[in-house]
Description:
Largest sheet: 6 strands, parallel
Strand content: 5-15%
Order of helices and strands: HEHEHEEHEHEHHEHEHEHEHHH
Number of strands: 10
Helix content: 40-55%
Structural class: alpha/beta
CATH superfamily of the largest domain: Glycogen Phosphorylase B
CATH topology of the largest domain: Rossmann fold
Number of helices: 13
Amino acid sequence: KKGLGLIYSSFLIFISFLYSIFFLLFKKPQLIVGSGGYASFPILLAAKLLNKKFIIYETNSVVGRVNKFFLNSSIKFFTGYPLKNLNIDNDKTNFVGQLIREQIYTAKQKNDFKKDNNFDFTLLVVGGSQGAEIFSKTLPESLNKLFSLNKKIRIFHQAGNKEQELKIDFSYKNNSNVTIFNFEPNIERYMMLSDLVITRAGSSTLSELAFLQIPFIAIPFKDSLDNHQFYNAEYFFRMNACWLIDQQELNSQKLFDLVKDLIVNKEKLLEKKNKLKELTKTNVNEIFEREINNILS
């Protein structure tokens, strides 16, 4: 089955490569931006063969395999994290920061989502689609204990899908102060209502939380390619800007003790908020646009 899957995937990449050749010849772009992943491989390969200018934008804290393959052929290498020891010309590398979705910018500017004063603490859990057993079993078991505290707690919990939602403890998901959801296009609403987020460590999620200055506990997906989720979270952890729990070391009591401590000692959350503010570039779009204009001029 895996062999057939590999053949099918290779066929799709080949077809995409042919389409990319025709697309570039027809559209004649002045510059191509590749942001990694196998979806960008066909267009970057076509650009290389047609001698088209392209830049690489790496959003993770380790260079992905596709980006690494095309790195030496690119005219510029933009990074979302301050990467080191790349063995390429420093003049070619530019730490521009993480591009943020427009709706995240808007949410922060408008600040429409005010925290509910009826609750002492609001927690958001996201990332349930990756290694979902932990998010549907271990986390609910741990977080359910929070309701025994003498505090008004509210939890928004992303289950990932209906199948994982069915595995969540009945008493937890039927608690009136727990909201279970599978997909939320406007996730920033839940983020801005929350005092703390428990999350996987994809670059987009962490960069959005950092931009909004929402403290988070990162539980990296242990099977992420090149372990990039761990290194994404480790960057913030080294800067004292988040809490990091290795999935292998996660247990119900350990997580409960940490969250309980943060509920009682909210000054620790404020410390992380301030660190996130220090680390986050707020004008990434402008930097990105300026650098591209410099290349094209």
